[in-house]
Amino acid sequence: MHILHHGAANGVTGSCHELAVNKHTSILIDCGLFQGEDAKADLSIEFNITNITALIVTHCHIDHVGRIPYLLAAGFKGPIFTTLATAGLLPLVIEDALKVGVTRDPKIIKACLSLLNKRIIAVDYKSWFELPCKGEQTAKARFQRAGHILGSAYVEIDIINKPSLSKNTHRVVFSGDLGAPYTPLLPAPKPPYKADTLVIESTYGDKNHQGRKERTQTLKSVIEHAVADNGVVLVPAFSIGRTQELLYELEQLIHKTPKNSKWRDVHVILDSPMAANFTVQYIKFKHLWDAEAKRKIAKGRHPLDFKNLTTIDTHHEHKAIINYLTSHQTPAIILAASGMCS
C-alpha cells in the first residue's frame, strides 16, 4: 500500500489523493479543481488512471470535485461513492462548473450529468461498502460526519490482507475538510476510533478563527449600523455552507429582537440562484442538522426559510429588488456569490 497526492499537497486546492491498495488497484479520494494561486490552464487528468477502480467523494466543494468531468473524459469507468446528501448536491455543483468553466452547450452538459448520475452510488454515514479490488487484498470503506458542509464526510478505508499475512487489516483515514466545533446547523465531527495511516488536510493551517459568539456579535454590529442608516449590507458568501450558516444566524438575530424593533422589518435577500438551490437541499436533508437546529424546527421556526427572506431567481427579479431598495431607502442584507458582489 502507498499513497500518491495529485493535488492539495503543495497548495490548498485541487484535492486528489490516490490510495494504491496494491499494484493492480487504486482508489481515488476526491478529484478537485485547482483555484487561485494553484490554478492551472490545463485541467486534463495528468496521472495514470488505469488501475483506479473507484472514486470516493468527501464533499462537493469545487476544489474537491471540480475535475470529475475531466476524470470521466479521461476514461474513468468506476463507481463514484458519496454520502446521500452529497449525491443530491454533486450534480448541481458539476452543472454549474461546466457552465462557468467549460461550455454552455446543453447537449454536452446533459451528457456529462447523465454519465455522472449513472456512476454515483450514495451511501449513508457509518455504513460499510465494498470497494472494487483486484489482486490479493480486498477493501471496504465508510463515511463519517465531517461537519464541514451538508453531506461532508471523512472516509475510513480498511485494506484487508490474506489471513496468512502478519497484519490482517490496515485502516487509512482521509479527513477531507473538517468542520469547526460549534458552527451552525451541522454536528461537529467525532474523531475516528482508530487509524493506522491518517491523511489530514489543513486549509487554514495555523490560523486562529473567531468563535461563533464573536462572529455573530460582529455580524450584529454591522447590521445594526446599517439598519440605523437604512443602509444595505452586501455579504459575499460561498453558495454551499457559508450561505446557509449566515441565513441561520440572521434568522436567530431577527427572532431575538423585540417585536417593535426595526430588525423585524429588515429584508434578507438571497441573490444567488445556485445558493438557493443548495439551500433547498439543506432543508431536504434537515434530519442531518444538529440538535440546536432541530429544536428550532420543533418550535415551528424555519431557520433557512423565514418571513424576512426573499430569494432571487432571475436577472429581472435582481433588477427589480435593486430598484425597490434604491427607491424605498429600506435596510437590507444581501447575500450573494462573490462574483455577484464584484
From TrEMBL:
Residues 13-225 form the Metallo-beta-lactamase domain. Keywords: Hydrolase. Pfam families: Beta-Casp, Lactamase_B. GO terms for molecular function: hydrolase activity; RNA endonuclease activity. It comes from the Bacteria. InterPro entries: Beta_Casp, MBL, Metallo-B-lactamas, RibonucZ/Hydroxyglut_hydro. Residues 243-342 form the Beta-Casp domain. PANTHER family: CLEAVAGE AND POLYADENYLATION SPECIFICITY FACTOR FAMILY MEMBER, INTEGRATOR COMPLEX SUBUNIT 11. This is MBL fold metallo-hydrolase. It comes from Pseudoalteromonas fuliginea.
